[in-house]
Specification:
Layout: E1 20-24, E2 38-44, E3 47-53, H1 57-76, H2 111-129, H3 137-151, H4 159-162, H5 170-181, E4 187-200, H6 211-214, E5 223-229, H7 235-240, H8 245-256, E6 263-271, E7 274-281, E8 288-297, E9 308-316, E10 319-327, H9 335-348, E11 350-351, E12 361-362, E13 368-374, H10 384-392, H11 396-400, H12 404-410, E14 451-456, E15 460-467, E16 479-490, H13 492-509, E17 517-519, E18 523-529, E19 535-543, E20 549-554, E21 567-570, E22 573-576, E23 581-588, H14 595-600, E24 605-613, E25 618-627, H15 636-641, H16 651-663, H17 678-690, H18 704-716, H19 726-738, H20 750-755, H21 760-768, H22 772-789, H23 792-795, H24 799-810, H25 819-830
Parallel strand pairs: 4-5, 10-13, 18-25
Antiparallel strand pairs: 1-2, 2-3, 4-16, 5-7, 6-7, 8-9, 9-10, 11-12, 13-14, 15-16, 17-19, 19-23, 20-22, 20-24, 21-23, 24-25
Helix pairs in contact: 5-13, 17-19, 18-19, 24-25
């Protein structure tokens, strides 16, 4: 979860002055790791502070700003120390510097000295790249670490990296744009080999050498991109994203790499059991820059990380590359859910760019995209015995005709523009662990090519695509693909010549003309917007002026952002060359944070966007919409007052009831509420009747299309029974609880719950004092969960699974919830998952 301003406090202030210095500290063990975290010591007089900075653009930006500030000190105060009068108001809260133990081998380096060192290293870069791999390990480590230092700064030595530097101002962006347009004039293609591997290890520990998989090629590859799924299946890994198996498998990979080359780890990223490792030959590591990593969960409620993806993007020479390792939804019939997971991953993974004025990069905005993982697409419409017979005959062509992924790609539903090599190896799932025998369990899974590797981009040739049958650790077999990828390499002389020509041309064209654009439309209306259902319209911005222009949506007076929280413009800023156009997607999406005020009528779908041109005028875009109220995002007290489905009642009536319930002004004689919301009862009753024995309930996500049908059914009363699968209804229930503006246990009771979490009788006493509808809902839900636990032999649920899931929804902190509070809330709720004689049966808890 991201760290916000609420999570940090001001502990120490260190002015940047003549007595300020930065020291890079490292241990010898870290020297061979390109892309590792950078540790620096900040010194001011006798005070020292050691910082651990993550590799990537955030660190480069931070160190660049420190460097710039130190340079400003030298320029502005050449003869006297700055006074820093503005620090006076902070000195009362300063706690003093925390001196840290000095690290061995650290060298005091002023920021100016670091800059000089980089310039010196720049001249030696070409010599280092030609060094033999047989040089001493000490020298190689030192060179790699030097490159790491250089790549942690904005002062870059390679001309190809210059394109990735943050540039500010219209002129700089124009030069950058022209360089990209003329890229062919100063780059040439050079081939490099990429080993891609994917392995679902089924929660097992490494029991055998990985060399037959990782070192299967005759010559060592230049890159290794190795993905794992189901690294750890324990509940601890699922709930806390922590596992001891990460270093175990990382060590196994390191030992299994090709023995004829030396490699450095660039990046490791993991989400629960999905892990991606990125290694590169040491002698080409200097040309890697802009390394970023992102993760996204696509499990239940679109958040939980048992399914989802991890991704790494980087620049190599002048090519942008993105690698994705994903684990999509399981089970043969769930191909639509897998399609949805793929689209969610593409939409939600966004990489921050070095230039903060530029929008984030999505997966598809890279020159090369490499996608691997357990995609879980199955072989359908064939019986298991028929499939095994075709495998025995090596009739893989017939099998591929029934492969779900091939069919979905042919229909251009997913992986549009991607390529997969010909499959000439037998399916990699499912085997009895420790053998080459097909699944002999009671389920007897149909063999399938779950584990796949695909690519997207130009100048890519597949040299090999195979499974590795000798590895028997898991019920999957590992898969590898060896790709030869043409990388764009910068010719220094051609680059310099092109750059100078562009600058001269811009000098001739630059004048005092005011930028101007035309908009395809200035008024947009979004009809029948629904909870968690995306709508988008497009405005085309055309540069019809005489000069290039830079645009950005800007904040209106006294507003925190350029638009309301239910609206986004993508891209929100950018650069337009003369005569160019850009399509901006205006997207409306109502979620749990924005639905309550829209349901109650306190807010409307109305906003005005201000599109600002640098050195030009502002353009105004009007946004309106009609929102259909939903039980999702409405309060429990309001829903208990509604006798009819929320969309069957006049909007004014819904608003009046919402105001009454919020102010407790209802008349108990005329406005007698239901015991619990009928919408909640419909979902729980459906699960009680049909899903008590459903395996993986509340752990496997449902389909978004089915959720939308369930939502519409609850909001309109169009059906007597809920549509969709049990998993979709279960996820709808979780989303319903998550969207409540006031949780089942109201915010005002939260501190009391934390204080008495270990005392069962006090916990029950607190619940007995909740507002009536909140108490009814709490008792109804806990009775339902107790019923589920009675069928744990079939549904595989227990209190350690249900407890954290529902505790996090029923008890919500009014502020940031820390780990201690989460533990106490879980402990509080555990008291209610064990049935006592005072608990009423679920059948007695029905709405009137």
């Amino acid at each position: 979860m991201a760290i916000t301003g609420d999570d940090v406090t001001l502990d120490e202030i260190i002015p940047i002055s003549y007595d300020f210095s930065v020291v890079e500290v490292s241990s010898p063990d870290e020297l061979a790791v390109v892309g590792a975290d950078t540790r620096v010591r900040v010194t001011f007089f006798e005070e020292e502070l050691e910082l651990k900075l993550p590799f990537g653009s955030h660190t480069r930006l931070f160190l660049s700003e420190v460097n710039r500030a130190w340079s400003d000190v030298c320029e502005q105060y050449p003869k006297q120390e700055p006074k820093f009068d503005w620090l006076t108001k902070y000195r009362k809260v300063s706690k003093g510097a925390r001196s840290l133990r000095k690290s061995i081998g650290a060298t005091n380096i002023k920021m100016s000295q670091i800059k000089k060192s980089e310039r010196s290293n720049s001249k030696k870069e070409d010599e280092r790249s030609r060094d033999s791999v047989h040089e001493s390990q000490e020298r190689v480590k030192g060179e790699v670490r030097d490159d790491l230092i250089r790549n942690s700064q904005h002062i870059l030595s390679n001309k190809d990296q210059m394109l990735g530097m943050p540039q500010f101002g219209l002129r700089d962006n124009l030069i950058k744009c022209e360089l990209l347009k003329n890229e062919d004039a100063y780059t040439y293609i050079q081939n490099y080999s990429f080993f891609l591997g994917t392995y679902n290890v089924n929660g097992q520990n490494p029991k055998e050498s990985l060399s037959p998989w990782l070192a299967s090629s005759a010559t060592p590859p230049d890159f290794y991109l190795v993905g794992f799924q189901e690294l750890d299946l324990s509940k601890e890994a699922f709930l806390f994203n922590d596992t001891p198996k990460e270093p175990e498998w990382m060590s196994a990979v390191c030992k299994g790499l090709h023995p004829d080359a030396k490699y450095a780890l660039v990046k490791l990223v993991r989400l629960v059991g999905i892990m991606l490792l990125f290694y590169v030959k040491i002698d080409i590591a200097a040309h890697i820059s802009e390394v970023e990593a992102e993760t996204v969960g696509t499990g239940v409620m679109g958040r939980m990380g048992n399914k989802g993806a991890v991704a790494i993007r980087f620049q190599f020479h002048n090519s942008d590359i993105c690698v994705v390792n994903s684990h999509l939804a399981a089970h043969t019939d769930e191909f639509e859910r897998r399609n949805q997971d793929f689209k969610d991953i593409c939409r939600r993974i966004q990489f921050r760019q070095d230039d903060p004025t530029l929008p984030p990069l999505t997966i598809m905005k890279h020159d090369v995209v490499l996608w691997l993982g357990d995609l879980n697409y199955r072989i359908s419409e064939l019986e298991v015995d028929h499939v095994k017979d075709l495998i025995a005959k090596k009739d893989f062509e017939t099998l591929c005709n029934h492969d779900q992924l091939k069919r979905q790609m042919d229909e251009e539903v997913v992986f549009v523009g991607f390529t997969e090599g010909e499959i000439d190896f037998q399916p990699t799932y499912k085997y009895d662990t420790g053998s080459d025998q097909w699944d002999t369990s009671e389920k007897c899974r149909v063999p399938a090519w779950c584990d796949r590797i695909l690519w997207r981009g130009k100048s890519i040739k597949q040299l090999n695509y195979q499974s590795h049958m000798t590895l028997k650790t898991s019920d999957h077999k590992p898969v590898s693909s060896l790709l030869e990828i043409g990388i764009k390499v910068v010719n220094e002389e051609s680059y310099k010549r092109t750059f100078e020509e562009i600058v001269r041309r811009i000098d001739r064209l630059e004048n005092d003309c005011i930028p101007s654009v035309s908009l395809s439309q200035r008024e947009f209306h979004f009809q029948d917007v629904k909870f968690m259902q995306h709508q988008a319209q497009t405005v085309t911005v055309h540069n019809d002026g005489q000069v290039p222009c830079q645009f950005e949506f800007i904040q209106k007076l006294d507003e925190p952002a350029y638009c309301k929280p239910w609206l986004t413009a993508n891209p929100s800023k950018g650069f337009l060359a003369q005569g160019a156009s850009v399509d901006i997607d205006l997207e409306v999406f109502v979620n749990r944070s924005t639905a309550p005020e829209l349901n109650s009528g306190q807010q409307q779908l109305e906003d005005i966007l201000v599109l600002h041109l640098e050195r030009g005028k502002d353009y105004f875009i009007s946004i309106t919409g009609s929102y259909l109220p939903s039980c999702f995002g409405s309060s429990l007290s309001t829903l208990c007052m509604l006798r009819e489905p929320i969309q069957e009642m006049p909007l004014e009536t819904v608003r009046e009831l919402s105001l009454k319930s919020n102010s407790n002004a209802s008349n108990p004689e005329t406005d007698k509420p239901q015991e619990i919301p009928k919408e909640l009862w419909m979902m729980v009753d459906h699960l009680f009747r049909y899903a008590k024995k459903q395996e993986d309930l509340f752990q496997q996500p449902g389909l978004r299309t089915e959720f939308e049908e369930i939502r519409d059914c609850l909001d309109t009363g169009s059906l007597d029974t809920l549509p969709g699968s049990n998993h979709s209804v279960a996820e709808a229930l979780l989303l319903f609880l998550d969207a409540l503006p006031e949780p089942v246990v109201p915010f005002s009771f939260y501190p009391q719950c934390l204080d008495c979490c270990s005392d069962s009788s006090q916990c029950r006493q607190i619940i007995s004092t909740l507002p009536q509808c909140h108490k009814n809902v709490f008792n109804y839900l806990t009775a339902f969960l107790q019923e589920l636990l009675k069928h744990s032999a079939h549904n595989r649920l227990d209190a350690t699974i249900l407890g954290p899931i529902f505790a996090g929804l029923l008890f919500r902190s009014p502020t940031k919830q820390d780990p201690t509070e989460k533990r106490k809330v879980k402990e509080f709720f555990q008291h209610f998952l064990v049935q006592t004689p005072s608990d009423r049966d679920i059948h007695d808890k029905l709405p009137e």
